[in-house]
Design brief:
The protein has 7 helices and 10 strands. By secondary structure, the protein is of the alpha/beta class.
């Protein structure tokens, strides 16, 4: 029955809409956590009072979802950010250029290497050594063979799906890969990451996934220097198709 229902378009749309709109954590977990908040507040107010730092009711600021048994983080963004920053730190380029990666990672890189970030959405923060250019990965504002050090981490899988305000284009990934290759200088380094899986697929409008072979094909004019893979909480050097969905990290060089 479940497989039959999946084939009904209206049913699929209703399920997708429900999943999208459903709040996480759910109402009952929020209610439980709110109860724990007021329990903690009551116990806190019974402790010896610190008259220099008054806890006033009007200043209550509940953060009810942070009491977790483990440090909460996204292993993909953690591993790929560390990997990319380490590669750039070791190569010591005179200037690094990033195309639309996570701003936190780019900001950290800029503190040991002068960095320019390019994105369709402007940054609202400023840092020494960090410049920003408004630009499109499908039409980068650089001449051919001009960029010595270039990164685009978890970006090209989104291009053309409209998620970040970009124009719809079924060949967005292919065009973005071509543009990154175009601007990369001879002997220049390119660092990218993308979702990988057993087959190429589009999950509109979140992202696309690719096989390892397709990623290599996208950059077939470049030399593959290093590849690493993230499966769950593990960072490994081996692509394991049988494990299904993961994230591939790739270091290419133009010869």
């Amino acid at each position: 029955m479940k497989e039959y229902l999946k084939k009904i378009l209206l049913f699929k749309i209703l399920v997708i809409s429900h999943k999208t709109l459903k709040s996480k954590p759910n109402f009952f977990i929020k209610l439980k956590n709110l109860g724990l908040f007021f329990s903690d507040l009551s116990r806190y107010n019974k402790l010896q009072k610190n008259n220099r730092l008054i806890c006033d009711t009007k200043d209550l600021f509940p953060r009810i979802n942070d009491k977790t048994s483990l440090t909460q983080l996204d292993p993909v963004y953690f591993y790929q950010g560390v990997w990319c920053a380490k590669k750039i730190f070791e190569s010591k380029p005179k200037h690094h250029f990033d195309i639309a990666s996570q701003a936190i990672m780019v900001g950290i890189i800029s503190q040991f290497t002068p960095t320019t970030m390019v994105d369709i959405r402007p940054l609202t923060v400023k840092l020494n050594n960090l410049n920003f250019l408004t630009g499109d990965i499908l039409n980068l504002p650089f001449p051919d063979n001009s960029v010595e050090s270039l990164s685009s981490i978890c970006v090209i899988e989104h291009i053309g799906l409209g998620r970040y305000g970009d124009h719809l284009d079924q060949f967005g990934t292919e065009k973005a890969a071509s543009e990154l290759s175009r601007v990369l200088a001879t002997n220049g380094n390119l660092y990218i990451s993308v979702p990988i899986d057993k087959e190429n697929k589009t999950y509109f409008n979140a992202h696309r996934t690719f096989t390892r072979d397709y990623v290599i094909e996208l950059f077939n004019n470049l030399e593959l220097i290093e590849e690493k893979y993230i499966y769950g909480n593990e960072l490994t050097e081996k692509y394991e198709e049988a494990r299904g969905f993961g994230t591939g990290l790739y270091h290419f060089k133009k010869r």
